[in-house]
Design goal:
Blueprint: H1 7-18, E1 21-28, H2 30-33, H3 44-55, E2 60-67, H4 73-83, E3 91-95, H5 104-118, E4 125-130, H6 141-150, E5 155-157, H7 162-167, H8 173-176, H9 185-207, E6 232-234, E7 242-244, E8 247-248, E9 264-266, E10 272-277, E11 289-295, E12 303-308, E13 316-319, E14 329-336, E15 344-350, E16 363-370
Parallel strand pairs: 1-2, 1-3, 3-4, 4-5
Antiparallel strand pairs: 6-16, 7-10, 8-9, 9-16, 10-15, 11-14, 11-16, 12-13, 12-15
Helix pairs in contact: 1-9, 3-9, 4-5, 5-6
């Protein structure tokens, strides 16, 4: 780890040591949200927050957890401001390593998240966290850490630490997680321990008199094509599509975990919702489009068909039926990636449903993400 890697952390710890008021934030998926911990205090994020409070008792700390289960960095790039950055954090830990696939697409969306956070006006100290599937060792850290290295951001890997200890027999996998992925209370404690071990090293540097480099907040040129740094989330709050049978959901959203709100609902075959994107200054130059909709365990669910730019010969199926059983999924599907830059139309139509005698769950469109 270079001094540049620890510059913002050194500066932050000096501020904490002086007794300033600081905000500690987390952005990620279900592990960051705290899945399988018996209570919020046992999550890795809350334990790391507690370390900040205990280590710098003169400071006043505030906690922001922007974890949402089952979400990737693609969604993270669109919601980072709403769920974490608007609170002007001084520290942000980022983890999408087990929800992102190990490929170029998610490396690009991940870079969008990182550039948005690192370039934010509060100049937060950023640390990347790589969780892991404990049965296979699968995660996206090779792609994510390449982004971290490009921006000289430190990263902490459970694949290189806890997973290795499981392989060596120091811990049984069942001690850490009941499903090969999400930590139980003991597992959350071990994840927090690895993060805290890293933070303690930086604190030791500070106590030895290490000085942070000057930070002018200038970002290097992007590593990827970087279409997602300025990704925008379009819900009923941000746009007014044409509704033909679809209706806007009138229920109020109570927080970032109250996910299935601020969207549009379709129930019957032939009902449509249509968007015009890129025709005003807000979305001018759209070249990437994704749709976020609910895949539900309450089957059968309505299915829909998406047509982009009136290309009816190549419709895209949006299937509201979720084949897994852990709960309803905030499914995000890319329908245009580095396409023609400009204005585009999106039409979504409910398809006829096979009669099963069971009540059909409506199709729920959460949002569009444009970049």
């Amino acid at each position: 780890m270079t001094v540049k890697n620890s510059s913002r952390l050194l500066q932050l710890m000096k501020r904490a040591d002086r007794g300033e008021e600081l905000t500690i934030g987390f952005l990620g998926g279900s592990i960051t949200q705290g899945s399988l911990a018996k209570n919020p205090e046992n999550t890795y994020a809350r334990r790391v927050f507690t370390w900040w409070k205990d280590s710098f008792p003169k400071a006043e700390f505030h906690y922001v957890n922007g974890g949402i289960g089952g979400t990737t960095s693609h969604y993270g790039a669109a919601r980072a401001v709403r769920d974490v950055l608007m609170y002007q954090p001084d520290f942000v830990m980022v983890d999408f390593c087990v929800n992102d696939e190990a490929n170029d697409f998610f490396q690009e969306t991940y870079e969008g998240v990182i550039r948005k956070i690192v370039g934010w006006q509060s100049k937060p100290a950023v640390v990347l966290l790589n969780n892991v599937f404990y049965d296979t060792g699968k995660n996206a850290q090779e792609y994510h850490n390449a982004v971290g290295d490009w921006y000289q951001i430190p990263h902490i890997s459970m694949k290189d630490t806890l997973y290795e200890k499981v392989k060596e027999g120091i811990y049984a996998e069942s001690e850490l997680t009941p499903d090969h992925l999400h930590p139980n209370d003991f597992g959350h404690g071990l994840v927090a321990k690895e993060v805290i071990r890293f933070l303690e090293k930086i604190k030791e540097e500070m106590e030895k008199g290490a000085e942070p480099e000057e930070d002018n907040n200038e970002l290097p040129n992007p590593m990827t094509q970087n279409a997602y740094e300025n990704a925008k989330l379009l819900t009923i709050r941000e746009c007014s599509p044409q509704l033909t049978g679809f209706r806007a959901d009138t229920k109020e959203k109570t927080g970032h975990l109250d996910c299935f709100k601020n969207g549009w609902i379709g129930k019957k075959a032939g009902e449509k919702i249509s968007f015009e994107l890129g025709k005003d200054g807000t979305e001018k130059g759209v070249s990437c489009i994704a749709v976020q909709y609910r895949k539900t365990v309450s089957r059968p669910s309505c299915r829909a068909q998406l047509v982009i730019d009136e290309n009816r010969e190549n419709p895209i199926l949006l299937d509201g039926n979720f084949e897994e059983d852990w709960g309803d999924c905030l499914y995000l599907e890319s329908v245009l990636h580095h396409g023609r830059k400009g204005s585009h139309t999106i039409e979504i139509e409910i398809l006829p449903q096979e009669e099963t005698g069971k009540e059909i769950t409506p199709f729920y469109l959460m949002a569009l993400i444009v970049a």
